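Hi everyone,

Forwarding the result from last night's run.
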Amino acid sequence: MTIIEKLAAEKSVGHRGGLYHKLQIDLAYNSNRIEGNSLTHDQTRFIYETNTIGVNIGKDEAAIKVNDVIETVNHFRCLDYVIDTYSAPLTLDYCKELHHILKNGVVDNYAVIGEFKKEPNYVGDMETAAPAEVGEKLNKLIKYYGNTKLDLYDIAEFHVEYERIHPFYDGNGRTGRLIMLKQCLENNVLPFVIKDENKMFYYLGLKEWQTQHSDERLISVFLASQDYSESVLKYFNIAHQREAVTYSDVIKQHQANSLETPRKGPVR
């Protein structure tokens, strides 16, 4: 049974304690935490497992933001959507639907839910695509990769460009990482969760790729994340053939794939 078959089967019966259960909690906790969500891993797990809020779970007692809870519950639904539609074409509407699921119900006067941003925004000290350019640039990015088989390098490169465009007012990192998961499942690339503890290396890797054309740090973060995924699959006795385990492997694989199915022009 493949990873996606296992996830879909466990999802369909509401299985607890398996791969689907673990991925739901780990992905929602880490992806939200990277973006500043205050919920702990235990609180995230409690919301998923009981559909209630465990305010005093663990040692710390702290106020919980309403939006943190809403976005956590919504993230569970986003993963379900990705599992159900992993083989569907990636389109502008698909990106908008992910964003709508993620941000639906949040309390934010500036939130534009399920639509591209209406005002310019920065990522740190970096400019992003102007609102009027988002649709054209994102559509060009999606078409550039088309229906060809993607490897880990392609998926990383797509993610870098998606975050450079920054199509939404908020939720770009989380929708971007969900799209990466979809691309991994669709292309039989080992899916992974970027842990909050690696957030600074992840952000630095994105910036170095965007500003210095240096790809090694981000690829290394993804490979380390895949190492953890391998340990999880081993625990659940799920077989998966991983082709690239080092940075050099990733580059060699990508170069070989590029010769077989060359693309015209740069990504942007």
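The chain has one domain: 3-260.

Cheers,
N.
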